[in-house]
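re the bet — no i am not wrong, look at it urself. input seq straight from the record:
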Amino acid sequence: MKKHLLLLAVFISITVTGVFAQDGTKDLKWAKSLLEHGDYAYAGEKFADIAASHYNSPAVRKEALYYVGYCHVKNSDPWQAIRVFEQFIEKYDNGSSSEFVPDALYVLGRVYEETGDNRSAIKVYRRCSRTYPRSQYARKSEERLQQLGGSGSTDPFDGDNTGGNYDPDHDNDYGNDNGHNHPGHSGGISREIRSLLRVAESVNNDFTRDQMLLEGSDRARSGEDFVALANAIKNTFTRSQLLDRVSKNENYNNFSTRSMLDLAALINNTYQRDMFLVSFGSAMANRDYVSNYDLVEVSAAMNNDALRQQLFDAISESKSFQFINARTMVELAQTCSNSFIHDQLLLTAAQKNKYGYRDLRILADACKNSFTKTQILQQTDSGYNSPYRSRTSAIAPEPGSSRKQSSDPFAGFNFNKAQIERIKNFMNAVERKRNMAESARQLKKSDLKTATVREYMERYRILQKFERIHQR
C-alpha cells in the first residue's frame, strides 16, 4: 500500500511539474504577443512575473528577464532598462552561454549611450566583442566602438579624472548618475551646491571661501556635490576635513562609484585613500542592488593589498557576494597582486557560492597556488550532482522557446527624448520636494506606463500625505 502511495505521489509531482513548465512556455508566448502589439508596459509586467516564478524552467526565466529590459527600452524608460540589464548580465554572463547575453550587453551599451554615459557604453561593448566574438552583437558592438572612439586597446576615458572638470552649471541629463544607482537617487550637482559655488567665487579670501564651502557641505546630496566642493577648496587640510564628512552624509549609501573614485583621486596619502575606498566599497556591497563591476573598479583603484583584503572580507560577508559570477570574481581577485589574498578570495567564493562545475573550473584555473586550486576542485564533488551543477547547462535553450522577433529593441527605434525629459523633471521635482504638482501635471498618459514614473508617483503620494498630516 505504501509503495502504491509513493508511486502515486511521484506521478502527481511529475505531472504538476510538467504542467507548470508547459504553462511557463505558453505564458512566454503570450507575453511576446503583447510585445508585438506594442503593449510594452503590460508585456513587461508579464515577463517579470514569468522571470520570478520558480515553476518555470531556467531557460524560460532567463528569456523572460531579458525581455523585461527590452520592454523598458521600448517604453523609453532608461533608468529601469539599465537596472534590469545589469541584473541580467550579473546573473547569466558566465563567458560561455551565448543565449541572450551578448544581446543584453549590446543593448545595455546602447542605453548607456542614449543617457550620455559613453564610458560605461565602451566597457560593455568591449566585453561583448571580446567574450562573444562570433555573435552578431559583437559585430554591432565593434561598430559602436568605432563611432565612440573606443575600438583600440586604450580607453579614451582612461586617466580622465573628471573631478577637476565638474561644471557647477551642468546637471546630468538624466538626473540619476547615468542609471548606475537605483531610480530615486539623483546624480549631478544639486541646485543648492551650485548656488553655494557661485557665491564662493565672489569671496576673495581663500580661507573664508574654503570654510564657507566646508560648512556648506551639509547641504550636499550626492557624491557629485562633494566632488565639486572638493575641487573648489584650495587648502589641502580643509579638503581633508570635507572628505571626512562624506561617509557621514545621509545619502552616502547611494553615492555613485564614479564620484567616489574621483574623490579618492584627490587624496594624496595612499593609506587614507585606500581606507576611503574600503569604507565606500564595504557600504556599496550591502546595497539592495550593486553592479559588481563597480566593486572591481573600487578594488582596482587601491594600492595596499592588506587594505584590499579588508575590502574583500567585507564583500565576501555581504549579500551581494552570492550574485557575483565566476568570471567577475576572477577579475576582482586579479586586482590584488598578493597571491595568497588573491587565491583566498577565489576559494571563499567556491565554498560560499553555489557554483557549478564550469564556474568552479574558472575559479580553479585562475588560482596561483596549486593547493588552493585543488581545494576549489574538490568542491565539484559535492556540487556536480546538485541543481546548480552548471550554470551553462541550467540556462540551455529550451525546446519550443521562440525568438522570432529581433532581440534588439533599438532596431528601427529611438528613445522618446521628450518623454524622458518630462520624467526626468518629475523625478527631480520629487527628489527636491519642489514644484511636484506642476511637474506631475506635465506628464502624459504614456509616461504613466513607465515603471519609473509609477515608483515616483508613489513617493509623490506619500509626500503629499505627509504634508497633509503636518498641516492639521
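see?? Residues 417-471 form one domain. told u. also The chain has four domains: 12-148, 159-259, 269-384, 417-471. so pay up
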